[in-house]
Write a structure and sequence with these properties.
With 459 residues, the protein is an alpha/beta fold. It folds into three domains: 4-144 and 268-328, FAD/NAD(P)-binding domain (3-Layer(bba) Sandwich), CATH 3.50.50; 157-265, FAD/NAD(P)-binding domain; 348-458, 2-Layer Sandwich (Enolase-like, domain 1), CATH 3.30.390. Helices cover 32% and strands 25% of the residues. It is built from 14 helices and 25 strands. It has helices at residues 14-23, 38-43, 45-61, 77-101, 180-191, 211-223, 276-279, 314-328, 357-362, 378-383, 411-423, 428-432, 443-451, 455-458; strands at residues 4-8, 27-32, 105-108, 110-115, 118-122, 128-132, 135-138, 142-144, 157-159, 172-176, 195-199, 227-229, 234-240, 245-250, 255-258, 260-263, 267-269, 283-284, 287-288, 301-303, 342-344, 349-354, 367-373, 389-395, 401-408. The strands form seven sheets. It has a five-stranded parallel beta sheet, covered by helices on one side. A hairpin with a 4-residue loop joins strand 13 (234-240) and strand 14. The longest helix is centred in the first third of the chain and has 25 residues, at 77-101. It is globular and about 65 Å long. The termini are far apart. The mean pLDDT is 94.
Length: 459
């Protein structure tokens, strides 16, 4: 008899887990209160990248004459949103099609653990459906973090969810939070000509990235006309009446007025109402406690994705989902976080994997730094985009590549090769032996690795 796996949450962790479970012969059921695809597909990664792609095309059309292309550039934000919605709808339908193909059952409603092998599903019409399972996977994701001192009205004061439903370009917008989401939205509205103020409490934006890349991105945003405020802590956010605008005040007394305020201050694991306390699952405000097999402290109950508080990335959730169901199905599988890629779809793009220079220095590691500039790359010139560089870190003793960090054209696409290099522990000698096609942007990765060392040392 096939094992029955019930998954609470149909985001990139939950739906990938369901498909993998079905592939391994399990009877999979997914409980989802909203649309399949979760935050990433419906209110996060996919819709923001779709809008950013349109905004970057618009900006490209403003500068095509040097390429010999004469185009009139204008845009309609409402049509951009229509296209975004169509992209989301198509992808959701794709997941539904995969579920149908793999005979995966979907229950519409809010899932809650009644015991370690029973999930109660509260449907929209008030009914409670009980689903028993051999194993349960909690994949409830995360939600936008809104400090208690801020009143979220979802009209002028928005999170990253509501801002995607605007049907017009804001004349002005203040964005609180200079990490990934904040910078992407600052880039989006900056490219489209909005007056943008980006406010970050730390001394730099995207503080988890390479410090040189952070500094260069801040310069690029300023070139778009974005006002970047660092070391600025927000004290109050108020909606003004009858003007219908917002006023932000910092602890230092600065005031920022804008048509809209976007709160992009991070996300928190969605652990409320899942029944964790009832079953005795260990968790905190940082998320559900799991081991490398994605097991909780309760037998046959697993947790994956943002709700674990590990790395709040869609691709991490998907891999965690695969690890969880493989263990459920008797395949020994563990999660490895040593080469997890991160990227930011700004303009220029950012891609990163492995150790960063500031981390290596802080740990006292003996590393060599290599760098290749896109301005020396033939394809970058052909594309008319030579901004940025590739930076690599190499262990001096072993010659192993420890990190790759990219700022520039198609950085997000180049990242997969960088992940493979770091994940497999390739050395400078091994990278040197890989023949790259010419002319391509990918040549910069090899050039950066080779630039890190005197070739006489590593052959």
């Amino acid at each position: 008899m096939a094992k029955k796996v019930v998954i609470i949450g149909g985001g990139p962790g939950g739906y990938v887990a369901a498909i993998r479970a079905a592939q391994l012969g399990a009877e999979a059921t997914v409980v989802e209160k909203d649309a399949l695809g979760g935050t990433c597909l419906n209110w996060g990664c996919v819709p923001t990248k779709t809008l950013l792609h349109a905004a970057r095309l618009y900006r490209l059309f403003q500068n095509t004459r040097k390429l010999g292309v004469y185009a009139t550039g204008s845009f309609r934000f409402d049509k951009m949103v229509e296209n975004k919605n169509a992209v989301v709808k198509t992808n959701v339908a794709g997941i539904e099609s995969l579920f149908k193909r793999h005979n995966i059952k979907t229950l519409k409603g809010t899932g809650r653990l009644l015991d370690q092998s029973t999930v109660g599903v509260q449907t929209g019409d008030g009914n409670l459906i009980r689903e028993t399972a051999d194993a349960v996977v909690i994949a409830t994701g995360s939600e936008p973090l809104v400090p208690s001192m801020i009143r979220l009205d979802k009209d002028r004061i928005l999170t990253t969810n509501e801002v995607l439903d605007l049907d017009h370009r804001p004349g002005s917008i203040a964005i609180v939070g200079g990490s990934v989401s904040g910078c992407e939205f600052a880039c989006l509205f900056g490219l489209l000509g909005s007056t943008v103020t980006l406010i970050e409490m730390l001394d730099c934006i995207v503080p988890t990235e390479d410090t040189e890349i952070s500094r260069r991105l801040q310069g690029a945003l300023k070139n778009l006309g974005v006002r970047v405020m660092t070391k600025a802590v927000i004290k109050t956010v108020e909606k003004e009446y009858p003007e219908g605008s917002t006023r932000l005040t910092t602890e230092s007394g600065d005031q920022i007025k804008a048509d809209y305020c976007l709160l992009a201050m991070g996300r928190k694991p969605d652990v409320e109402g899942v029944g964790l306390e009832h079953v005795g699952i260990e968790f905190s405000s940082k998320g559900i406690t799991v081991n490398e097999r994605m097991e909780t402290n309760i037998r046959n109950v697993y947790a994956i994705g943002d709700v674990t508080g590990k790395l709040l990335l869609a691709h991490v959730a998907s891999q965690q989902g695969i690890v969880a169901v493989e263990n459920i199905m008797g395949i020994d599988s563990t999660m490895d976080y040593s080469a997890v890629p991160s990227f930011i779809y700004t303009d220029p793009e950012i891609g990163s994997v492995g150790i960063k220079e500031q981390e290596a220095r802080a740990m006292g590691m003996d590393v060599l730094i290599g760098k290749a500039m896109f301005k020396t790359n033939a394809m970058a010139h052909a594309l008319g985009n030579t901004t940025g560089f590739v930076k690599t870190l190499m262990d001096r003793e072993t010659g192993r590549v420890l990190g790759v960090h990219i700022l520039g054209p198609h950085a997000t696409d180049l990242l997969s090769e960088a992940v493979t290099i770091v994940k497999t522990g390739m050395t400078v000698k091994e990278v040197k032996g890989v023949v790259h096609p010419h002319p391509t942007l990918s040549e910069t990765i090899k050039e950066a690795v080779l630039a890190s060392v005197d070739q006489a040392i590593y052959g």
